[in-house]
Amino acid sequence: MPSFDFDLFVIGGGSGGVRSARVAASLGKKVGIAEEYRYGGTCVIRGCVPKKLFVYASQYSEHFEDAAGFGWTVGESSFDWKKLIEAKDKEIARLEGLYRKGLDNAKADIFDTRAELVDAHTVKLLKTGRTVTAETIVVATGGRPNLHAALPGHELCISSNEAFHLEELPKSILIAGGGYIAVEFANIFHGLGVETTLIYRGAEILSRFDQDLRKGLHEAMEEKGIRILCHDIIQSVEKVGSGLGVRTKNDKSLTVDTVMLALGRTPNTENLGLQAAGVAVNDQGAIVVDEYSRTSVPNIYALGDVTDRVQLTPVAIHEAMCFIETVYKNNPTRPDHELIPTAVFSQPEIGTVGLTEEEAAKRYPELEVYRAQFRPMKATLSGRAEKMIMKLIVNAADRKVIGAHILGHDAGEMAQLLGIPIKAGCTKDDFDRTMAVHPTASEELVTMYSPSYRIRNGERV
After folding, report:
1. Are 347 and 359 within 8 A, CB to CB?
2. Which of 42, 75, 104, 175 has the fewest CB atoms within 10 Å, i.e. the most exposed one?
3. Which backbone phi and psi does 169 adopt, to 5 degrees?
4. What is the tens place of the pLDDT at every residue in 248-291?
5. For residue 133, what pLDDT band results from cuts at 50, 70 and 90?
6. What is the pTM of this model?
7. What is the pLDDT of residues 300-350, one digit of tens each?
8. CA-to-CA distance for 268 and 319, rounded, in angstroms?
9. Cα separation, 303 vs 287, whole angstroms
């Protein structure tokens, strides 16, 4: 039997990497983990956690306005960007400390360095030049924003990474992209008082979401004052005085303080030594894995965004736990990527789980669609015109609820809870038998007794 320095070595200190390292170490395995930047990965350091803090900050402008309808007199308010950044940085440092503490308590060896593969069992730690060997290796290096290098002037633009560390809050911003990152940041910057424009090549924002929610959010954003340019892309960016001049494909000319590119993400696989170790990647640079997250090299696994399966933090953690079950508990377990609840922390929020109406219509001969659109109670006194949309997609043959979609306040929270009955295979009859909690917006989910319409063979009837 060959002798190795480690039972497991993990390259990458994000959600998937840390979870696999910490749990393996707690099982008594000799574990090493290397991270070249900060522990916590995209989500904790430069993704969903600081973004959600920014979302909260950006909502207060509307909260102050709404208070008047409930009898409150709110004095003059102002916003200090630097104070928000300082508070955010303090919280991120606290969370990174918890990640390190968890690894340390489990007795994993922590390396603050970039690590690269030398061969199937050898890793080089670049800071010291030391090489270590491991029986099993996990690559969990995540992804990064696509810098869109073909765009003239891309070097003048920022990505979501830099948005968390801007020295000053811009007066105006153009955000390129129509996915959840672009949409969320458009709402964040607008809520903080920035003149905001979103530009997207497609016909409608959020391409993989239910069409009703996409349209409803688009309308709500424009009503707030966010400018949305669809069917258009940036052609060039150049320095113009103290700002940036932008030309678009549709021959529009814009001048803004900041341009942010949110045009997808790229797996972090360059110069990792994957080729030397024999690890295969696809045309997009993502590591190719089997149903157990094993790469083309039997003792090397890959988890999370670097595999470009489902780019969500809970998915990376789930894949890590499946890896532990498979490799260290003699219980081969495939990651389950079906029926994943998802939220877009736009304003209003989107929460969704299961199939969209469009997807379901392609899979099932007949659907029942239950849809409610209404003004939430909070908006009645505040005077806001925002509407909530709630939608259930039901397979008519067995009455199973196969999709649930919500636009409105706390939609993300509702999506998490809806994920349970839908994952369990509950039927519309189960929903109907459930007592409503009144007065709540979510009671609509159990009081829509008659279909709003049906779809047969892809056609609405």
Report:
1. no
2. 75
3. -75, 125
4. 999 999 999 999 999 999 999 999 999 999 999 999 999 999 99
5. very high
6. 0.95
7. 999 999 998 999 999 999 999 999 999 999 999 999 999 999 999 999 999
8. 18
9. 9
Residue type, 228: I
Tokens of 48: 């969903």
Q: What is the 3-state secondary structure (H, E, C) of the chain?
A: CCCCCEEEEEECCCHHHHHHHHHHHHCCCCEEEECCCCCCHHHHHHCHHHHHHHHHHHHHHHHHHHHHHHCCCCCCCCCCHHHHHHHHHHHHHHHHHHHHHHHHHCCCEEECCCEEEEECCEEEECCCCEEEEEEEEEECCCEEECCCCCCCCHHHCECHHHHCCCCCCCCEEEEECCCHHHHHHHHHHHHCCCEEEEEECCCCCCCCCCHHHHHHHHHHHHHHCCEEEECCCEEEEEEECCEEEEEECCCCEEEECEEEECCCEEECCCCCCHHHHCCCECCCCCECCCCCCECCCCCEEECHHHHCCCCCHHHHHHHHHHHHHHHHCCCCCCCCCCCCCEEECCCCCEEEEECCHHHHHHHCCEEEEEEEEECCHHHHHHCCCCCEEEEEEEECCCCEEEEEEEECCCHHHHHHHHHHHHHCCCEHHHHHHCCCCCCCCHHHHHCCCCCCEEEECCEEC
Instruction: Report the catalytic residues.
Output: 438
1, pLDDT greater than 60: no
